[in-house]
Design a protein that fits this description.
- The chain is an all-alpha fold and about 475 residues long.
- The protein contains 23 helices and no strands.
- It is globular.
- The two termini are about 25 Å apart.
């Protein structure tokens, strides 16, 4: 058991490094791109990215999540694993062909798409790359060192290309291409490296049908999630224009970066959680879930408070004064950091291993419907702020429904997690923003010193109140430092 625990910790460390690279890339490139491309340019890329996400979702057919669970169950038998990968890859490639056919018809028949057909053709490459990448296999095998290293290499190349190739507002197509390269081109290496993980020669006796039913459940989950995560940009693009999409992207970009931090600890749990449930190790299953939930709340609550209070400074630093209208939607959307952190654990890492995919699907469909309805009502009058309200309410609905379905397990999940203490500690730290607002030292220094004071007070207060996880993590770090 100690080896497994150590393995989980190592996976979390590697995924933390991967998350850090995912944070650093947009922190370096996004401020540059927003100032060069302005809201219209970044809005065009965000609009096209949101549309492509729907075609990619159709091509993936739920495989990215289903594949992790299916491969994790047979990963100790190379022949069974190879056969499973072959079957899923065949299904995936067939769906890619169908997705490209639908994509071509859409470009030819929808004027809003045909106006940006060059950008669409560049960014649609991601549909094929996602299929070839078989990322679900590497996650099922817990190959986080490999995933992290190749991702960092391509992101570094992407950063260099960004500054070398993008110089004016008309370079938005190049920006889209560089973004795809940095995030998806490494999937080619995944495909080449496949021969080291599975048997490549045809094994015969494939039974594709057995995957379809469970896969469709994950597919509909993906549909619902993709709808309410990309719907805002799509509807803003159709109803308001590219500039509004660009402004909204500036607000959401910061939330996306922070969400990757909050969920970094939980994303590595699905393969191991599935194994624990398969083997009936429920005590261990709930132990890792509870500790991860504690971490999520420790991270999400203060970050939501800090960046909500410092939204103006964050937008001005990362995007510039042209995006000042993104401040209000950013403040509205910040609480979703907490909601997404919790629902990611309860839905993906807990309910799916427990076989509750249909209940997760119900929660996500409800969220998508709520987001769609509120967007139609609010965007015409309130623009980006209306889109932000729709997303906030949708995320709340998703979490509420998931908690309802696991209501008999809430005690096991949340017991001994000092939620009130963490929230109170965050509110105490929030009082320090008065100091930051009085500094008048410029945007960067205000944020830097404000963050140092805020999070310094937050961490010290956690130590004073003897938060169990904080003491445990600090003890482990101190031990490693001494060694």
């Amino acid at each position: 058991m100690s080896t497994k625990t150590k393995s989980i910790k190592f996976n979390m460390i590697m995924n933390g490094i991967l998350t850090l690279s995912t944070i650093i890339f947009p922190l370096i490139t996004f401020p540059y791109a927003t100032r060069v491309l302005l809201p219209v340019g970044t809005g065009r890329v965000s609009f096209v990215t949101s549309i492509i996400a729907y075609f990619s979702m159709f091509a993936q057919l739920g495989i990215p999540t289903y594949g992790i669970r299916a491969c994790a169950k047979v990963r100790d038998d190379k022949e069974k694993l190879s056969k499973t990968v072959h079957e899923l890859l065949i299904i995936n490639l067939v769906m890619v062909i169908l997705a490209y056919i639908a994509f071509g018809i859409s470009i030819a028949s929808i004027p809003r798409f045909s106006r940006e057909k060059e950008l669409f053709f560049v960014m649609c490459i991601t549909i094929l790359l996602n299929a070839l990448g078989v990322e679900w296999l590497y996650k099922a095998l817990e190959e986080y060192t490999y995933i992290t290293l190749r991702s960092i290499i391509f992101k570094v190349i992407g950063i260099i290309a960004m500054f070398a190739l993008i110089h004016n507002q008309n370079d938005y197509i190049i920006y889209g291409g560089v973004t795809i390269f940095a995030t998806s081109a490494s999937n080619i290496l995944n495909f080449i490296n496949l021969r080291k993980k599975i048997i490549l020669k045809p094994l015969g006796g494939y039974t594709l049908k057995k995957h379809i039913k469970p896969m469709l459940t994950f597919f509909f989950m993906s549909v619902a999630t993709t709808i309410y995560t990309n719907l805002d940009s799509v509807m803003l693009g159709f109803m308001k224009g590219d500039a509004e999409v660009g402004i909204y992207t500036a607000a959401v970009k910061i939330r996306i970066i922070l969400t990757s931090i909050v969920t970094s600890a939980s994303v590595v749990l699905l393969p191991r959680a599935s194994q624990y449930v398969e083997k009936g190790m429920m005590d261990e299953f709930y132990r890792i879930l509870k500790k991860t939930m504690h971490f999520i709340l420790l991270a999400a609550i203060p970050m939501a408070l800090f960046f909500g209070l410092y939204a103006r400074e964050s937008i001005l630093l990362l995007s510039g004064k042209e995006y000042i209208d993104a401040v209000l939607p950013m403040q509205i959307i910040m609480p979703t950091l907490i909601l997404i952190g919790i629902s990611n654990l309860t839905g993906i890492q807990m309910m799916i291993p427990l076989g509750m995919e249909k209940q997760v699907l119900i929660s996500e469909i409800a969220g998508a419907i709520v987001d769609l309805v509120l967007n139609f009502i609010l965007i015409p009058d309130y623009g980006v702020a209306g889109a932000a309200i729709g997303t906030l309410v949708a995320e709340f609905v998703v979490l509420f429904i998931q908690l309802f379905f696991i209501r008999d397990k809430l005690v096991q999940l949340f017991s001994q997690i000092p939620l009130f203490k963490i929230a109170l500690t965050g509110l105490i730290a929030s009082l320090t923003v008065i100091i930051g607002w009085q500094l008048n030292l410029g945007i960067f220094m205000t944020l830097l010193i404000g963050a140092a004071i805020f999070f310094g007070v937050y961490i010290v207060t956690l130590f004073i109140t003897k938060d169990k996880l904080t003491l445990e993590l600090s003890s482990q770090l101190l031990h490693k430092f001494k060694k």
